[in-house]
Design brief:
This protein is mainly α. The protein has 2 helices and no strands.
């Protein structure tokens, strides 16, 4: 479960950085074209990483569902 906690924390941190970067771009605070292109590239990279994290979490969720499907409940004898 520690790995899952790490993924959620990383996902949250990346979203925060991504939001801050988007704010800078949307507010017109970029003074050079090269800097703008670099920041757009960063946003694309963050989006790719977030998608990969989402895929990992989804795979783990399906793995957990399959594990719980294989558990049999014991019924008491009458």
């Amino acid at each position: 479960m520690e790995g899952m906690h790490l993924l959620f924390k990383l996902q949250k941190e990346i979203k925060t950085v991504q939001d801050n970067l988007s704010g800078v771009l949307l507010n017109g605070q970029v003074d050079k074209w090269e800097k703008y292109q670099y920041m757009v590239g960063q946003l694309k990279a963050y989006q790719i990483v977030l998608q990969e994290i989402s895929n990992l979490l989804k795979d783990k969720e399906h793995e957990n569902e399959n594990t719980t499907d294989n558990i049999h409940t014991l019924k008491p004898k009458d």
